[in-house]
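MODEL INPUT / OUTPUT PAIR
PAIR INDEX: 1
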Amino acid sequence: MKSSQCHIVRVLLALVVLAPLTANAYIGPGMGAGVVATVLGILAGFLMLIVGIVWYPIKKLYKWIRRSDKE
């Protein structure tokens, strides 16, 4: 097989594997609420991580500068 044909076959195979199939499933309200709570928890954790890494060192530096100005 030529290189271009091999590339086309790989792309088609990937499309077939990744093609959505019909899912006959029901997600109840409890499961939906659990998914929403999990996503919000992950986002809140990420926000707290950013605050902990960025905000608190800047806050300590600001207090240290204000303390040294008063002396």
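PAIR INDEX: 2
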Amino acid sequence: MRVPRAVARFNRHITNPLALAFGGWVPTVGSLEHVGRKSGKRYRTPLNIFDASDGYVVLIGYGPESDWVKNVLAAGAATVHKHGKTVQVVDPRIVSKAEAAPLVTSARILYRVHPYDEAALVVTAR
């Protein structure tokens, strides 16, 4: 299920600031810090981030045309902030949710039942 763009606009202004401020206790909530491919500005986007054996799997809710996805793919790197840890990640690639499922090492049940089913971004910890 892909989330409508109108929801993305609402989330950008209302939900995302709340998730960045209070989301640290949720098992899968973290943020991805990335650099804008056009502006060069640093952004921090709250996302559902699942631990993987050699990095992280990030579910893509608004589709691969989302700016944060394009930014991470263009830069080839980003920073994951999750549960007080900061990890540099590299080698981003988009795969289907099913392809990424065997890589997930924590919160597997939450991963399986999550309604985003189109794609996932897999990144490797540096």
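PAIR 2 NOTE: The first strand starts at residue 29 and ends at 35.
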